[in-house]
Amino acid sequence: MRKDYKDKNWKNLSTLLLLSAIVQLPLGLLSASAVMAKEPPANLQPLEEIPPPAMSKDGDGVDEPQITIIKKKGETVEEYRINGQLYMMKITPAHGVPYYLHKEDQDGGWVNSGPNPPLIIPKWTLFRF
Questions:
Q1: Residue 89 near residue 77 (C-beta atoms within 8 A)
Q2: Residue pLDDT, tens place only, 14-57
Q3: Considering only CA atoms, which of 86, 123, 118 is closest in space to residue 102?
Q4: Residue 2 above 60 pLDDT?
Q5: What does the DSSP 8-state code read for residue 63?
Q6: Please, which residues have CB within 8 angstroms of residue 93's CB and are 6 or more apart in sequence?
Q7: What is the separation of C-alpha 129 from the centre of its chain, rounded to a whole number of angstroms?
Q8: Is the pTM of this model over 0.85?
Q9: Residue-level pLDDT at 46
Q10: How far apart (Å, rounded) are the C-alpha atoms in residues 41 and 121?
């Protein structure tokens, strides 16, 4: 008896889904055709041409970071600096996947955003003696 009840529920559900799909299909086609048939207004004006940003005369990009590559015992460290401030490091170990260390803000510590970031362990003080 229990099996018949489940079969009826599935049959009712599949019928309901089929009916909703049949009803929604023509509505979707009508709305798509209405959007495609809509013509733009006659009083449109073209946007003005915006020139590309000016390059500096000495060829240095203002927004480009200075990258220093340091190789130690098969490990490669790439330091990224803007205006002399170190903001990110890419560490490529001799064996393994590269990972990044970056600062969240100027006063903050380094955050690992590599393939295996360290576990964040809560350090709450529960009791103090």
A1: yes
A2: 788 877 777 776 766 666 666 666 777 888 888 888 888 776 66
A3: 86
A4: no
A5: S
A6: 74, 75
A7: 46
A8: no
A9: 85
A10: 59
